[in-house]
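Write out the 3D structure for:
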Amino acid sequence: MKNIFKYLWLLLPLVVVMACVEEYSLDGAPPTEADANFTFTPTAESDNILRFTADGDFFMMNWDLGNGQTGEGKTITGTYPLAGTYTVSLTVFNSGGSATFTRDIVIEQTDPLLLDRPIFNLLTGGVDAVEGKTWKIDAGRAGHFGVGPNIPTSNFPEWYQAVANEKAGSGMYTDRYTFFLDGFRFVMETNGLVYLNSAQGSNFPGAFDPGVGDLSAPYEAPDNLRWSLVEPEGQLPELSVTQGGFLGYFAGGRTYQIVRLEENEMFLRFVDQANTDLAWYIRLIPEGFEPDPEPEPEPEPVNPDVSFTQSDLVGNGRKVWVLKPAAGAFGVGPSRGSDSFFPNGDDISGDRPCLFNDLFIFNSNGTYEYNAQGDVYGEAYLGIPDGCQPEEDLIGTAAEAWASGSHQFSFTPGTPTEFPKITVTGTGAFIALPKAFNGGEYSAAPPRANESVTYEVIAYDEATEEMTISIDITNDGSVFWNFTLIPAADQSVGQEALTVADLTGGGERAWKLKPAAGAFGVGPRPGSDEFFPNGNNISGERDCLFNDLFIFKSNGEYSYDPQGDIFAESYMGTGSEGCQPASNLVGTAGEAWGAGTHEFSFSPASGGANAKISVTGTGAFIALPKAYNGGEYSAGPPRTNETVTYDVLNYNSSTQELTIAIDITDSGAVWWTFVLVPDND
């Protein structure tokens, strides 16, 4: 049964509205106070829950319900658990200006059922806690205070988290905050000292530098403070305290978003009023509660036991990785693999889709590509607005080097005491997060020139091919960024298609082996050189091999020019091995492998199949005479008018590096791989 109470209309006489406004207009006449009139009625749920309705219609209609609630629109519902007088106002706007109508209402009786709300009980201790519930800053644990970007998708201090007791002496840790359900009273005990944002010092006489950053000041909070709490639809609950009171750290405001409220923990977010790009965070615990001590960091493993090879990284010559769209795949914490600092177990892939579609591509020729796929996740250090936005916004800024690009990488195998390592090198080279580098984080662009960033591979699952990498941004093992990568479902994504015009240069183009590790070798899969030379750069030892020219013409002609010398092996029949004049082949069974002109054909990539280059003619080959489809020559001569076909593993139009491979087993067990670059001499 509803409580019987009366509404006192204190701003009488009422202005009678002569006509209802059926449609809002944007004419030049400003609204009047009468235009802002409103009515209200109790709801079926409780006489203390009122439904307010504006009489008119305007393009903007703002409410202040006098209980801490605000809102917009023609109708709004307000909740008033406690008896008392509340001032409600409606402000309406049109092109001519605005007008406000204000009315006081009286709630005659408290509705205990409205006070018995879980969020009220957790904050105050409930109706039985006659002395209220007292909270203090959780000083003894890391992350009790911090700052991050003020963006809708972030509810954690991802830019900075204080370590345990870091702000001792500031006044932050000695202050106490008591919330009472009775009368919604709030008591702030400062013990004489409070902690302030440096921009607020002028508002506190006697403010001084406490030696731990920002300012401290002598301060005694006033009596008769109150608290209010509203729960806006689709948003975090908002806790406010009245003028003169605040919680933990004063940054100009007195309204706090409740990120998390539990029996023994309250985690609050509040906007810096001097710099609204920043959001501050504090964590509080009840007075007398002692949280479990933070676990000691796990000792580093004596044997990391991570079985991960370069072949796992590059796959069949080119492997595309993406962030795993799951909780724990992207985060920062106090140890390898942890995300307890951010996002603390949350899955942010839905909030940041432009981050989780990024491609990280490793090629067997030692190149590493970052492909943002047209969008990036902006943050302040990039110099662009926060959140997902077009990648082109980076162009022309100091952060342009962090856009899509090609770099180099190297791989260091693991040992019994060391994790495997991936190092990417180049101006703006990174994996997963541009901000993080070894020993620090960028606060602003540009990245350092030709920087190398090394990541440890701390876990790899051969069955799922999930790879977890970690980077220490402190150099003392106290803060790590951790990322879990998985192979892209479509391994052709981001791949540039080699065309016959690329191969021939539109007329004639000469190619030669790239003088680098991984450019010439044999292994158990395309792109691998682990059988030979296993990561070594042999271009200096076999210069006569790395100066050979492989020439393609748009008329279908293919030529081999050894440039006067060859790297001979026993199957060629020259009688000796190593670099020697090409003329030594003349008159031998291997003569057809010398300089000559043949034919070629090209099949573009299609339906997931690699592009293919075929050379045809007696002795026709690319890079290595010995290798043909399904076998290797043990002696000359080559078969007459033979066709040898090579798979195109990768082509990079920026560097013009072309990676090809040939299966010498017909079973996929042994491959020769070659990386070619145009001859620019």
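The radius of gyration is 36 Å.
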